[in-house]
Amino acid sequence: MALTVGFDLDMTLLDTRPGIKAAYQALSDATGTWIDSDLVVTRLGPPLARELANWFPPEHLDEVVTRYRSLYREHALPGTLVLPGARESLAAVRARGGRVAVITGKYEPNARLQLDYVGLDPDIVVGDTWAETKGDALREHGAAVYVGDHLGDIRGARAADAVAIGVATGPYGAAELREAGADVVFGDLTEFPAWLAEYPAA
Question: Nearest 5°: CA angle at 96, between 146 and 150?
Fold first, then answer.
């Protein structure tokens, strides 16, 4: 079976903070509700509704989630930055004859749009996952390795019995990622291709 490597999206492959900040500012303008978008982008990872619950009452959450996702397409894509080593890491998986899976908490249609926008072309995209539900997606697609920046990503990898790789490009440092159970921690994805070259063949 081909090696399958899973990657998180926000702050693992892509720096989506500028675009997400713009989308939250647009949502704030559209709804008249103040949102601290600078704070929001420091804690990317958990489900969208969980973040929006800090700013909107429960009875409006479904409506606001839908509105944000619509605004995201217009406002978030232009601010997307590819993180160092991301393209090379996907290429390294392909060079091993492997498959690339992006397993993300982001709404899947928007995740696909964002990947298309920056020219990254994974074999598999699964959205709307978080922590242990990322583990479910990793198991479903037979991923042996999962790379992410959030403690929830480490939980997902552990739930799938996959090698848990933490990258310190998001809200957590190397020590926190190790403490959460990461098997390997990188400063960023530029370190991943060399690690993969030493990873045992199936």
Answer: 15
